[in-house]
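Protein entry
_____________
===
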Amino acid sequence: MTSLRTAALAGIVLATGLTGWRASPSAVVLAKALHPSIQLVPVRVPHQNPKIRLFRLFYWVDGVKVEALLSEPKKPGVYPLLVTCHGGFAVPEPLMRHTASPITLPSLAAQANPTGVVLAPEYQGYDQSQGTVMGLRVDTADANAAIDIALTLPDVRHAPIFLRGASMGGGVVLMLAGERKDIRSVVALSPFVGWSTWGQWAKRHPNNARAVTLWGMAMNSYGSSNPRAAVYQQRSPVISRIMAPVLLLQGTADQEVVWQTVRSFYQQMRAAKKPARFVLIPGGHHGLHGIHQTQATQAVQSFYRWVATQGHQPS
């Protein structure tokens, strides 16, 4: 069965015409020259594809050491750059350090292939990153910094970026799409769509236990009951600034993300005349694994074919 990430790489090749990253044996040397304070550490895992290289990238954001994982083809050539953002906690968790990440080197290696470069930011408080879990706004800043570093590696400076995020990572990629002008497309799987949309929906539906519980966590963390308050706007994607095509993939049986919040976000995007698709899969659970994965993969492939026909080009 084709994984969603493999489908993403295959679709990106179609959508970008193989423009972006040029793999180079001297990537480690160049990275250290361009960023003396970063660490780009080559690593290997059992059964690693011999045609790819893996790295742990360590960098600093506001004095905190943060990790990202990176895979690249060994063969010199021009490749697209896929940034994949994992899920986690949408509010700060000050006691959580080195939290287990859904993305590990073995899982990245299993799905990476020599057709593209994959950057997987961890965030503060996850895996080998320092600090504590900080929530959506800081996670987005961490991912943004990782992208900026990747874009200074060989021949990546002017590459369009393809984003893919799941759960809270879906919120990260939607936030990034509103902050960057170099995004080619966005795939958000079972996404948390930000506190403003979530809070407004929760207040309109006080009998939805999941929506109200999570909204209560936000109010405890940020001190406001107004979902339109600045503290929540800062932790929500800015739809008016999103220019790249967006795919929202969601299941109706999701116990983590209330599917109606994703539909509400899609309706806001359409009202703003943004290029967006919303695929709702009946009975689909969080992450759309198992029997729903084939349908989700087909939706991703169809989306990338559509992206290839769109006129949007990142600036």
Summary: The chain has ten helices and eleven strands. The longest helix spans residues 293-309.
